[in-house]
Amino acid sequence: MSNHFKQLRFIDQLALLKLRGVRGIGLRVSNYKKDNNESRKRLLKNLNKLSEVGYYTLKNYAAPFFNQETGKYERLKFRTLIARYYRDKHFKQATLHAIEDIEVTLNTRIAYLLGEKYGAFGYIKFHLWCQRNGYNRYINRHMNKFVLKQEEYNFLQKLVSSAKKSSNKSVVDFENNSEKAIPPVWLTVNLLTLGESIRILELMSRKNREAIANQFNCKVDELISWLKCINLIRNICCHNENLIDIKLKTKPSIPQWIESKDILYSVTQEDGSVQYTNAIALPLVIIITLMKTINSKYRLDDLNKSLSMLTPTNRIARQYGFKSISKMHDLFKPNQEDEDTSIIIGY
Fold first, then answer.
1. Pick from 252, 234, 242, 237: nearest CA to 196
2. Are residues 233 and 303 in the same domain?
């Protein structure tokens, strides 16, 4: 017997939210003329917002307020739910802005390293700059000439396709004025996704990986785990998914400096080990750690402001993985000597 799914009307979706405990939803229109207009306006406004955002999107943002025992949402008003969605949208924009700066810097440093050591087109010969043998734990493969050739083929195939579709003026000018189908490395990095840039870093020889990691003042393992985490966050931002309530399935390395600052919410286990949060605070710590290595004068005021709008209480701050609201703000504080000359990002 096949299942039949029926699309609920917006008014029914609104009623379902009300039935499950979301407050501030009026479904009846008053008989009194004066109250009639006001109640009708509120109902139409709520229906418009629901049709604009979508029931399942709102249900996702309401999830932290759901009580399993009662089967209802608690301490949640409809207007709070809508505000939470739009504040997270602002938060995603500010987060994506910071990630894009990290991505550009990573690509610039990859291009400089490969261009300086192997020339403008040396990067297309993977045996020159990649790990050639032994087990590569970053891609979970035993490296040999056949694996390298396959990686090289896959990369160049994607690159040619990306170059053809690119609207980047420098790439277009190169395509129109050169017999080569593959652009030089400093143009190529502009065509890469963050995931592809991470793949290049993973394929590099040990010395090349370390050279890149050193520029970010961290170890190779740390940098790769951080970048993979950031790539996940980037995809969430680009697909307009719920960012503020994320819980990481795979936790990246904890930046060493964060332990002394006591910013992240943590639990000490019976064996004495410390279990750190897997909530949004951890990716934010990583993003800010990398941003400060790029330019210690950066101030992410827009990111701080958008996060603050989502964090009215210490209970909510802990829900997001911070020890408290004050500790959350400590994360964004610039170094004392740079405070007067900071560059404000996001304005």
1. 234
2. no
